[in-house]
Amino acid sequence: MGPATQQRHRTRAGRPAARRPRAAAGADDGGVRCEACGSGSHADELLLCDGCDRGLHIFCLRPILPRVPAGDWFCPSCAAPAAPAHSAKSAAAVQTKMPKQFPLIQTKIVDFFKIQRRTAFAAAEPPEGKKRKRKAASALVVSKKKSRKLLPFTPSEDPGRRLTQMASLATALTATGAVFSNDLTYVPGMAPRSANQSALEAGGMQVLPREDAETLSLCKRMMEQGEWPPLLVVFDPVEGFTVEADRHIKDLTIITEYVGDVDYLRNREHDDGDSMMTLLSAAPPSKSLVICPDKRSNIARFINGINNHTPEGRKKQNLKCVRFAIDGECHCLLVANRDISKGERLYYDYNGDEHEYPTHHFV
């Protein structure tokens, strides 16, 4: 990204001296530090909030900003002190009217999500060896603490309830003009799949263990067969579309992969969308990639972010967003970082450490 200009008055480089925040404690250069990463580098990409004068890099925001936007800018804390930021849209785009509901008709839902008809909406069968695992529950707890395995989601037993869950997502996708996709997509004119190389990640990217990669594949196969994760997309007049648990979800359960069209970050410098997610922070930066879920996406697009400047906001967080390498390619997963109760809304921290594997539960 180029040097600061007059339009980039929110950066440290362009902000008048009288508006600059005080240097962070311990800073030896007298400059502003990013609240997320603690660095004062890349000054022309360091935004200063017009409300509280906190600094944040555009690439440290979650979702990231492809460029320094024109006009006033407020950090998530000042922009929405009473409500969390959205992963799917800006505050200006939040709908105020109830959207038209997708028809609760099995054939239409099967077609919308391209469910395999032969097995669609069959009663959820208990996994093989479930009784044996129940008998060895105490041993599993010990094993879990040692192996830190991710868990597949447990679908609702009632096929009708799964239809309702799927219809809720179809409603949100239709209302926002998107189609369903459960994988990263590569579109002509954007980044090719060959650009998605985890080896390019600056500082390296952690590899998803084989067993966890198999669990992720299992989740996707279940969804292809109509075994849907127990999640509802609900509409809130203030927050817009948001996601809540439709049954109890265990800690370390895979919620979903963040998917959409993959593009180079450099191609999105003039994109006003705020739903992009970092996929690859490359060295060199010209090879960095983002996920753009505005045209093709799944339920991840509608999961909210927390206000991480307040204790109340941090207390809401129940998901962890982590980037992994799978077969040499980058992927972004949302994983439960604690038990989630039925009816609880899902939140994760856009500015969290994406390199941190969600193992802080184990001692």
TrEMBL record:
InterPro entries with a match to the protein in the record: ATXR5/ATXR6, SET_dom, SET_dom_sf, Zinc_finger_PHD-type_CS, Znf_FYVE_PHD, Znf_PHD, Znf_PHD-finger, Znf_RING/FYVE/PHD
One term under GO cellular component: nucleus
Organism: Triticum urartu
Protein name: [histone H3]-lysine(27) N-methyltransferase
EC number: 2.1.1.369
Record-level Gene Ontology MF annotations: histone H3K27 monomethyltransferase activity; zinc ion binding
Region (Disordered): 1-29
Gene coding for it: LOC125513734
Segments of skewed composition (Basic residues): 7-22
GO biological process, one term: methylation
UniProt domain SET: residue ranges: 229-351
Domain PHD-type residues, every copy: 31-81
Catalytic activity: L-lysyl(27)-[histone H3] + S-adenosyl-L-methionine = N(6)-methyl-L-lysyl(27)-[histone H3] + S-adenosyl-L-homocysteine + H(+)
Pfam family, one: PHD
Protein location: Nucleus
Keyword terms: Chromatin regulator, Metal-binding, Methyltransferase, Nucleus, S-adenosyl-L-methionine, Transferase, Zinc, Zinc-finger
